[in-house]
Each structure stands twice: as structure tokens, then as C-alpha cells.
Amino acid sequence: MLIGIDANEANVENKVGSNEFASQILWQISQLDRQNRYQIFLKNPPAGDLPQAVGHWRYRVLRPGWFWTQWRLPLALYKTPNLKAFLSLTHYAPRFCPVPRIVTILDLAFLKFPDQFLKTDLVKLTRWTSYSVKKARHILTISRASKNDLVEHFGLAPQDITVVYPGINHKRFTRKISPRKLTKVMTRYGISQPYLLYLGTLQPRKNLLALIKAFSKRSDLLERRSDLKGLQLVIAGKKGWLYRDLFKTVKTLKLSHKVIFTGYLPAADVPALIKGAKLFIYPSLYEGFGIPVVQAMAAGTPVLVAKNSSLTEIVQDAGSYIRPPFKAKQVRQGIIEALFLPQEVLSRRLVQAKKRAFDFDWRQSGKKVVEVLNEFSL
Q1: Within 13 Å of residue 211, how many CA atoms lie on the same side as its CB?
Q2: E strands of the chain, at which residues?
Q3: Rounded Cα distance, 245 and 139, in Å
Q4: What digits encode the pLDDT tens for the residues 355-367?
Q5: Where is the Glycosyltransferase subfamily 4-like N-terminal domain (predicted)?
Q6: 128, 11: one domain
Q7: Could you list the residue range(s) of the whole structural domain that residue 19 is in?
Q8: Neighbouring residues of 256: CB distance < 8 A, sequence distance ≥ 6
Q9: I need a surface site. Which of 87, 240, 248, 296 has the fewest CB within 10 A?
């Protein structure tokens, strides 16, 4: 059976959450399913970190790339003999398609917080996601929270949606990091211990302005614990959109020597920086999932997340929470509570966190996707 896949989401250099999900799912499908044949459609030649082309796994580059899902991809699909199903590892399915479409919807933040997106992106996300959902034979999403959002906003039947949790590379985050390795990585970014860490794209819904303002009132933390002397806030991740206020706020609050922006963090540096942090903070207003949170849980770093969307589903009782309305006051209170947990409570949560992290496994994710592809093919 021949199955097509739009893999453009995986074919990028600096991968963030959605790119990582697409890349890992591709690898799992290529390794787990050798009964079916796969035609992988791309706008550009496949990057070196994608699965190699072999007998059951082939790539096809379609040019030109503009309005690619609207006309170029559909044209190729109608000319592909024996195609039985098509998987979009993105919100945007082909406008027209001769076989059942399975679409991946990672989150619906653009519907919940439209003011936090660029207008051009918002129009595209809203319109193209809507037609993709309506034309899909089945939908994949990455949490029960996102599934509930799809049911609520689009009136879909729950049985038409499958939750496929993302995973992590457990070996990378559970193995020990030597002090020398940690120091080397920290020095590279101008970081000195102790520090608080956020890792993710810089965009409004990540609620980083509230985090920075909360951190600016850290004096009482320094007075109450000697091991927090010189505390820094590390904000790691590439620039997304509407991020300039973050840098302006840091400058206005005279925190340039205390708030470190690392930019995009290479995968090799992520485990060390997570393990070295006093606290991993994810203050987002909305998350479809949140892979860095699971990475921190696996690494044994205490986590503090906003009590919303999928974050409570992931963390459960294994971390601390920022309560609504998620302003600077609540973020600051969350930081204080997380840093001053009684040792027995902290130890218990860290054990729970490591155990919970093992529930998220890429191999299991891949198996579930293959099952869906086989079930909903012609």
C-alpha cells in the first residue's frame, strides 16, 4: 500500500516543537512500517537528518513552493498511481486530494489568543486549518486538551481524533552531565549558577513578559536563601514573533546582566542547561503539549508550569503550578513556592516526574500513527 506524507515541517534546520514532532514521527514510521510504501513530498531537497531513501521510503521534491498545498501538491497527488492515504504532519492539508487525508493539529492557540499572532499568520492559520479539519478523514493531535479544543471549536466527534503524545530521547536527559561539561556549556552563553530556565520559542503566548517582570522582584529570594545569590534568568530559544518587548523590558528594568537570552539552543546543549537549572519554568498561556517540560522532568530538574491547557495533563502531581490569571504576581508566587518546597515534598515530586516522563516515548507515538494510517487508508 502506498501512503503519501507532507514532511516539510520536519525538513528545517533549527527545529522547535512542531518540527521535532514531525521529524521523530517520520523516523518512527520509516523504521516501524516496512509493509507499506511511502512517498514523502517536500518543497526542498531532504535534509541530511531525515530518514534515508530506501526501497519502501522515497522522496519527491515539488517545485515551485508558493501556495504549495493549494495547487502544487494536489496536482502531484492526482498523478500518483496507487496512492491510498495522505498524512499531513502540519495543520495544512492539500486543498484537493484523491485519497483520505489524515491531518496533524498540534494546538489551537491562534483561536484562543488571536491578538498574540501576526495578522497575516492569523488569517492563514484560521482559514487553512479550518478547511483542513473539515476535509480530513481523521485527525492526529498531541494531547487530550488539544483534542477537547478540536471538539469544542469545530464540532468534531471524539472518535475522529487520535491523541499521539510526543516523546523524548530518554537517554540524553537521564544520563549524568559532568561538572566540566555543564561549565563549558554555561560559559558559552555567559551563564553563571544559580539560574532559572525557560526553553522555547520567543512569542507572546509563552508569557515571557510576566516571567521577566516576576524575576525583577527577586530580592526577597536572595535574602532567604544563600545558594540563590547572583540568581540569573536564562531565556533560551529562537525568536518567533512580537518578541521585541522582551528585550525592551529587560533594558528598562536594568536586568541586562541578569537575564540571558541564548538564542536558538543546539540540541547538544539542551540536556546540560536543563540539568544545571534550579528550576525549569514554562509560564505559557496555552500549550498543545510542551516537550521541554518532559525533558526537564526526565532530567530531574524541578518544573513550574502554568495551570492550563495540556500542561496539567503532562505534569500532573509531579511539579509546581502558576495559578490564573498568570500575571507577573502569580508567576513570582509560583517561583517562590517551587524554590521553597520542603525537601521531602521536592524529592517525592522529582521521583514522580521521572516516572511520568517515561510515559512519553517516540516509538509508541510512531506505532499509533502507523495504526491510524492503516485503518483509514482506502
Answers
A1: 32
A2: 2-6, 37-42, 57-61, 83-88, 101-104, 138-141, 161-163, 195-199, 232-236, 259-263, 279-282, 303-306, 320-322
A3: 36
A4: 999 999 999 999 9
A5: 94-172
A6: yes
A7: 2-167+361-375
A8: 250
A9: 248
CATH code, domain carrying 133 = 3.40.50.2000
Note whether 295 and 317 are within 8 A (CB): no
Question: What sign does the dihedral 359-363-368-371 (CA atoms) show?
Answer: negative
Question: Same structural domain for residues 231 and 244?
Answer: yes
Distances in whole angstroms, Cα of residue 360 to Cα of each of 199, 275, 291: 19, 19, 9
Grid cell 488569517 is found at: 123
178 with 94, same domain: the answer is: no
Distance (Å, rounded) from C-alpha 79 to C-alpha 61? 14
Task: Provide DSSP, 251-282.
Answer: HHTT-TTTEEEEESPPGGGHHHHHHH-SEEEE
The contacts of residue 125 (CB under 8 Å, 6+ apart) are: 91, 110, 117
Give residue-wise pLDDT tens across range 94-149: 999 999 999 999 989 998 989 888 888 888 889 889 999 999 999 999 999 999 99
Query: If you count DSSP H runs as helices and E runs as strands, how many of each does the chain have, helices first?
Result: 16, 13
Handedness of CA 156, 294, 305, 26 (dihedral sign): negative
Cell of 67: 501556495
Backbone angles phi, psi at 74, to 5 degrees: -55, -40
β 303-306/279-282 pair status: parallel
- Give pLDDT, residue 193: 83
Q: pTM value?
A: 0.94
The position carrying cell 541530511 is 48
Bond preceding residue 325 cis, omega within 30 of 0: yes
Residue 277 grid cell = 537549572
Q: How many CB atoms lie within 10 A of CB 284?
A: 26
Element (H, E) at 31: helix 17-32
Q: How many domains does the chain have?
A: 2
User: DSSP letters along 297-336, please?
Assistant: HHHT--EEEESSTTHHHHHTTSSEEEPTT--HHHHHHHHH
